Amino acid sequence: MCLRVKGKEIPCFRYSSDHKDGTFRVALMEDIIVPPNSEFIAQGRILDSVPYWEDALLEPNGEFMGKKEVLVARVLVNLLTGKIPVKIMNVSDKEVELYKHSCVGSLEEIITFPPKIKNYMAISDISLEESTTPKTLPENLENLYQDSCKGLSSEEDAQFRDLLFKYQGCFSVNSQDMGLTNLAEHKIDTGKNKPIKQAPRRIPIAKMQDVDREIKDMMDKGVIEESDSPWSSPIVLVKKKDTCNSIRFCIDFRKLNEITVKDSHPIPRIDSILDALSSSKFYSTIDLKSGYWQVKVAPEAKPKTAFSIPGGGHWHFNVMPFGLCNAGATFQRLMERVLSRLSWKTCMVYLDDIIVLAPDFSQHLKNLEEVFSRLRDANLKINPKKCKILQREVAYLGHTISEKGVSTDPAKIEAVQNWPVPKNVRDVRSFLGICSYYRTFVYQFSVIAKPLHKLTEKTQKFVWDSDCQEAFDKLKIALTSTPILSYPRKEGQYLLDTYASNTGMGSVLSQIQDGEEKVICYYSKLFNAAERRYCVTRRELLAIVQSIKHFHHYLYRQTFKVRTDHGSLQWLLRFKNPEGQIARWLETLSSYQFIIEHRPGRLHGNADALSRRPCAEIDCGYCSKEEVRYQPEKPAHSCLAVETRAQTSSKTTPEKDKDSEHFNIDITKCQLDDPDLSYVIKWVQDGTQPEWKDISSLSETCKFYWVRFESLKYIDNILYCQTQEKIDGKYCNVIPKSLVGKVLALLHNSTTGGHLGIKKLSQK
Hints:
It comes from Pinctada imbricata. GO terms for molecular function: endonuclease activity; peptidase activity; RNA-directed DNA polymerase activity. The chain has a seven-stranded antiparallel β-sheet. A five-stranded mixed β-sheet has the order 28-27-26-29-30. A four-stranded antiparallel β-sheet has the order 20-21-16-22, with helices on both faces. The protein folds into five domains: 108 residues, Deoxyuridine 5'-Triphosphate Nucleotidohydrolase, Chain A, CATH 2.70.40; 213 residues, HIV Type 1 Reverse Transcriptase, subunit A, domain 1 (HIV Type 1 Reverse Transcriptase, Chain A, domain 1, Roll); 66 residues, Reverse transcriptase/Diguanylate cyclase domain (Alpha-Beta Plaits), CATH 3.30.70; 118 residues, Ribonuclease H-like superfamily/Ribonuclease H (Nucleotidyltransferase, domain 5, 2-Layer Sandwich); 119 residues, no CATH class. The chain has 27 helices and 33 strands.
């Protein structure tokens, strides 16, 4: 028996409880109660991946109907609407309660028989509007179409619209609509190691509701399911950068990754990909919808992905989660299989980044259709919000790809290219710091930089003239052009130099090429108000995390070296029981393979200068405050002799004022003559903190300032030390032993001294 609907003949079969290949199970989306002797229409959802069908038939589950004593009707479903109505009838005299996730039936593809060919057409069947009205695209593709059709002719526009309409099933409709491929499974080889069980971490009460919501969402999508696995990893809640303060649910797989046999599947060479892209005129970048979640986890590996929630159960993943060390290799292998014989001709694929290329529009449209067809056959869904189609210029793997060829992404060298014009000597020194680090690559560096070096002389007044501007511009051009910026190579270790100052962070990604250290790109970032309040160690750690994320395309699945002048960061990879922000940062770093090397400050000028890049904002309150903070504090006009209370009303004599005026000059000389402070001044001038073994035999004064090395400044030939308040603390003169008596007399016995006690005097 067949059912004819709109010219389509649909065969009707007897229902069966068996789940056959080619069918997709349908379950209830929520708990429902069906009153006696009544009919109820509920909403269903597909338990398996969403098929690429336009129409399907819902076949009832006989076992479900027999158990619940209800009837489920056959329903013709249009899958493009995203809704599956389930018609349920209760013929009994009692109400029936049906539970969420109950399997009510399965979807089967409609077998469409071609209509009989007619050798005539009735006049009433002819419609002029039908031939001229463009096909209506679904809402999820409208923005993609509008962004992509700019600059196309009317004919090209129509062809592109037809292509999107034909392959609309390739694009995800909403967050619930994800693909699931059968072409690859993620395996986790842990050898003969015993299961690792980590205790679940405590979750703040305020976050429990967010955790429950994430668990429910992943369970509804089929991403996770309840588990009785002996393995267990803790969860990490990562705050997303949005206005809703939402969280990202992550798992700390570091312990599992340590015992996992690493996958050696090769990653494509970035330089080879870039060379192949430069001869095209049209480019399209394609992004998959939650790409990792479209790959199944092998049945034997599912228990190893298990995680626990205090009071919230034990779960494991059905699909490939983020944070596993071999996830990238599995995904690269999948994409190469899906796009086999298309790579290097029709498209390029680097992990989850796909770029389609062609020399002209018609060929590009054919290439897009080939890629869409392959993704559809693999049951992989595309995220339309992150796609760029039919573009003349796109950003790909940290470079700008266009008809003219491959060039550096402007955002990549913006830190140096848009360096603000120096406004004082300190800004000039910061800029010269990075220039001097790469002076061997700049022809006639000393000649070009001479006007800038002249500004840093002690007796030179700061005047920014045309010669300084010319030198400044030439050095910026030299820094942002070859041979300074080189293309990455497959051979050669990557080096990441990071540094954080009070106002920002900087980093330089380099690579050893032909025995020399060649710069790949620069990166710098000013800290926001919250980040400026971090301690020194946390700011340095933030610099490492931000830099590695920024250079992800180069560093992922590479063994590289991070060089920092902050020695305490070497504990980073051994940190136990991380919480909050540290846990989030370690989760980010878990997918990378690197070592941390301490580097003395005198050798770290490249990243240090980027971190001290002057702020471009004219009215920046913090920078204004910094200018005031670094000014030496003038001593109060006071007398040096001890006065009685009766004599304090007398005026200060001119001779005493004269002594006070020369006090700053005396302290400079006394600091240099001091046997202890002379060591400290040399450390600060060199910009490096010596090793403990080199100072262990020195005096207690030297050790005192060695511990406080980060708080020392040498300004206008005077050594200053910051007070205990890390951010808002003042910089005070470091008093040599020879002047301690005079300073105490000034502060205690002067006209404004007030003969204060020890506590108040120390605060003063």
